[in-house]
Please model this.
Amino acid sequence: MKNKLFICLLTTAVFISFMSCENFLFKNWWEEQKTEENSGHGSNNGKVDPVVRWPNDLKAVFGQKLSDIALPCNYPKETKGTFTWTKPNISLSKMRKQTYNMTFTPDDTSHYNVVTKDVEITVIVINMVPIPAGTFMMGSPVSEPERCLDEYLHQVTLSRFLMSEYTVTQELYETVMGENPYHSSEGVEGESETPEQLPANFVNWYDTLAFCNKLSMIMKLTPAYRIPAFNNSTDPADWGKIPIKKEDPNIALWDTVEIVPGSNGYRLPTEAQWEYACRAGTTTAYYTGDVINEYTGWYDYSTAYLDYKILHKVGLLPANPWGLYDMHGNVWELCWDRYDQNYYSNSPANDPMGPSSGINRVIRGGSRNIFHLEAMRSAARYYVFSYQRLYFQGFRLVRL
Model:
């Protein structure tokens, strides 16, 4: 009986000793198994591999440096350390999918290994179409069906500029801004394989100012907008929260925004730039002629597409003669100009910038949810409040 008790006590003591956290062999084995499960690597140099959560959805804008891309922070259960690129000064090329080598350096290199991994990056290209300088007749003739009185026909001369081939996509918007104002946007059936190529929508005029300057800063360009009420800053981080309600007291401050003289950054098109680019040398109601159909513009032309909350991917219909897509329909496009129904009768003949005062901003081009086709004409003018975020409202970019 005494022998059995002795054996039992001895076995218990050995077991307790083995399970103790102070037991080096057991502790090292447990940490290596944990690391093996999370990182896929063991250790053969006396150190263990760190527990790392590698980024798997990195996006970058063409021309951006690898070192400018925001890398993930550590999570509580992961080893603390720093992510870096092995070649931090490489500019991203126009290939959409690229693979680069990333390094994770633990804070505690005496215990953990430095590890590397190939990480895929989606490269977003912003194609800017050169729009030649020229003179055109802005507005519509009295003979054009369904024209409005604010479309007074007048001659305008514009300097050369660049305009984005497509409206800004949700993918690009989220890459620049870090968020998507409308997360549940849907694409038409059959187009859902790449939903990130839907137009950025539910943005207001103030959203576009912040986006343009942030994108310009990423691309090392001079931002186009400054706000005197915020010490003439061009950094949206200094402007505070973007106004989205009529009652927001910051609206008056944001409305002091000015264009920075000589800036080469991204901006909204003026109303004159938009119509000139849309027409692309044409003088008819649409750049396709005097009529439009389901093969040349996105609108509610069929009961098959009458779902109010459905957008089309950019670039599916033929471009206009100057290579711009979706100028008729899909989403309304915000312009820089304030709206004034009488502005055309006395606006400058050269590079007009719109009225100097007013509470509404111009939108152009019509949208996916309309069935009154006259709203999609090249000369048609509509407007919204600057703070309004509307489902079928987006924008495209201009550079000088």
About this structure: The chain is about 15% helix and 20% strand. Residues 4-40, 302-306 have pLDDT under 50 and may be disordered.
